[in-house]
Amino acid sequence: MKGVLLVNLGSPDSPTPKDVKPYLDEFLMDERVIDTPQWLRNIIVRGIILRTRPKKSAEAYAKIWWKEGSPLIVISQRFAEKVGKLTKMPVALGMRYGSMTINKALQELNEKGVDEVLLVPLYPHYAMSSYETVVVKTIQEQQENFPKIKITTLPAFYKNEEYIKVLSESIAKGLKGFDYDHILFSYHGIPERHIRKNDPTRFHCKIDGNCCNANSVAHHTCYRHQCFDTTKRVKAYLNLHENKVSNSFQSRLPNDPWLKPYTDFEFERLAKEGKKNLAVVTAAFVSDCLETLEEIAMEGKNQFQEAGGENYIHIPCLNDDDAWVEVMAKWVNEWEKNGALPV
Ligand SMILES: C=CC1=C(C)c2cc3[nH]c(cc4nc(cc5[nH]c(cc1n2)c(C)c5CCC(=O)O)C(CCC(=O)O)=C4C)c(C)c3C=C
Ligand SMILES: [Fe+2]
Ligand SMILES: [Fe+2]
What we know:
Elements: E1 2-8, H1 17-28, H2 38-64, H3 71-85, E2 91-95, H4 102-111, E3 116-121, H5 128-145, E4 150-153, H6 161-175, E5 182-188, H7 192-197, H8 223-238, E6 245-250, H9 263-272, E7 277-281, H10 290-306, E8 311-315, H11 322-338
Parallel strand pairs: 1-2, 1-3, 3-4, 5-6, 5-7, 7-8
Helix pairs in contact: 1-2, 3-11, 6-8, 9-10
The structure holds the ligand C=CC1=C(C)c2cc3[nH]c(cc4nc(cc5[nH]c(cc1n2)c(C)c5CCC(=O)O)C(CCC(=O)O)=C4C)c(C)c3C=C and fe (ii) ion (2 copies).
Residues 205, 211-212, 218, 222, 224-225 line the site of one fe (ii) ion (FE2).
Organism: Meishania litoralis
Protein name: Ferrochelatase
């Protein structure tokens, strides 16, 4: 029997340093997130970051926490439940980090007699630190614990027409009544090194203004290209003015060059340029989470207004939007019927 495994990033069990610390430890000790040799990752993560970050992160989580739990988890559960109602297949939800493990989700499917799984990493774009680590971890679990289950993976859907349509229409809905001067597409950042590491040609990705516009097989794994492509397609779908849209990358750790321009610097630049009304889209995430609700909706608003901006909105992620649920259900049902995957 066929079944579906949806996987998102995960969250700590509660917004307290006691629960945030082990969660961050598992997350940041992932070799695809902090990709140094293990001895150095140990020093960076356990010797430096985890000494101070859990307290700071727990305070940030406390600001966005819902009475039902972490927004990312609750939203993903609502999404999974709605998709489950539109398919005959069992649907399970797992998280790459934290207590809702991929192992438990595979176990749930296994107990229902599933032996063919469609793995859906809940990220529109490919990145070693998001999409790829979910795939690698799921295959590792399958090989070690569920050898009879066959896994097929849904490709990154950043340019899929149906996805672009529901994303664009949810953005249009969010923009209603807001007389924006500018729309900033803020994607989660990654170190520039990750882009070069994932370039199969070894020479295409120069991370300059141009490489992501030229055609290349490198773009199958170029997160930067894929983010720019999502924006380009939404811009075309909504017929947005070229000068009123730009991209940026948020949430970096110190000491490494990360993808630029940095979102916090862009808030300042746009305000200093005289933009008064700013809308921010966070299309690297399908569910609202710490990065969107705290860093963008709260901190970003302060940064923009302190630099001279006036009105600011964060457009919610797709979350459990019915049109998005229908698109996902269509993809999984087509796979069930004839093995087809969306392009
Ligand atoms: C080296 C560090 C990090 C990389 C690379 C990275 C890539 C990456 N992350 C997401 C999605 C999310 N990240 C979230 C939180 C978060 N991310 C990092 C670090 C890296 N992410 C940290 C330390 C944290 C924890 C919060 C903090 O301490 O600031 C979240 C939110 C989770 C939640 O519970 O709400 C998401 C989602 C992507 C898509 C990505 C690569 C493209
Ligand atoms: Fe992250
Ligand atoms: Fe590129």
